[in-house]
């Protein structure tokens, strides 16, 4: 069974990335919410999923510095 938290984290990062591409910068609360979603998913994930979550965290940092 796939980790629902992982799916939520993927979607949250995708939404922020799409928003950023439209020149609408997210605020700190939105960034924190996405980070929290990634952390929640990490706690419930397999080692392979943890690797993907690390990549999502890196993508979040890259797009929203």
In summary, what is this structure?
Helix content is 78%, strand content 0%. With 65 residues, it is an all-alpha fold.
User: What is the H/E string?
Assistant: HHH
Distance between termini? 34 Å
Principal-axes shape call? elongated
Low-confidence stretches: none
The count of DSSP E runs of length 2 or more, i.e. the number of strands, is: 0
What does this structure look like?
This protein is mainly α and 65 residues long. It has 3 helices and no strands. It has one domain (4-18, 27-63). Helix 1 runs antiparallel to helix 2 (28-43), helix 1 (4-21) runs parallel beside helix 3 and helix 2 (28-43) packs antiparallel against helix 3 (47-63). The termini are far apart.
Main attributes of the structure:
mainly alpha; elongated
